[in-house]
């Protein structure tokens, strides 16, 4: 067989679909281990692992995909603060709050880091290559984190910052205030104000200034003080 014939045979073999292996009817199967929490999209080629399965008797819906000990809370967002629709279910974000402090000064600070997005609008799964701009995002938090988020959204505007799903580093930031943006850090160093120098005391010599002057008519006479 020449090279052309071998290539043709290889091409036919590589393109052959083998339905013969599945020609027999399936009459029975083992009990299901559960159902998928998230739908699988075509060409994703993802393995179905136990962590992606919900119990058979689960009611389904959003409640079935919340991790044990966690809570789901929904926050309103817009196109800008929701990273233009790229915060998809299953992705991780940081939550920032911007507002004014007790003295009326603007500030921005990261209040939560590595927060898992459970749903975007009312959808718990979206195709990765089709981002969608929505007005609400549901995230998964601990009860304590839920309290922080609830307080943060009442004192300012929330923003979502998309992060790499493999980045597990926690954010420990003191936040940013208006002087950090308007003024360079080098100009913030206080210049010491000049200190007024006290004038030296003028001491009189011993015996000076001790006397009196007597004026009689047009004559003036000085005399030492006894």
UniProtKB/TrEMBL annotation:
<dbReference type="Pfam" id="PF16976">
    <property type="entry name" value="RcpC"/>
</dbReference>
<feature type="region of interest" description="Disordered">
    <location>
        <begin position="194"/>
        <end position="226"/>
    </location>
</feature>
<feature type="domain" description="Flp pilus assembly protein RcpC/CpaB">
    <location>
        <begin position="60"/>
        <end position="163"/>
    </location>
</feature>
<dbReference type="InterPro" id="IPR017592">
    <property type="entry name" value="Pilus_assmbl_Flp-typ_CpaB"/>
</dbReference>
<protein>
    <submittedName>
        <fullName>Flp pilus assembly protein CpaB</fullName>
    </submittedName>
</protein>
<dbReference type="InterPro" id="IPR031571">
    <property type="entry name" value="RcpC_dom"/>
</dbReference>
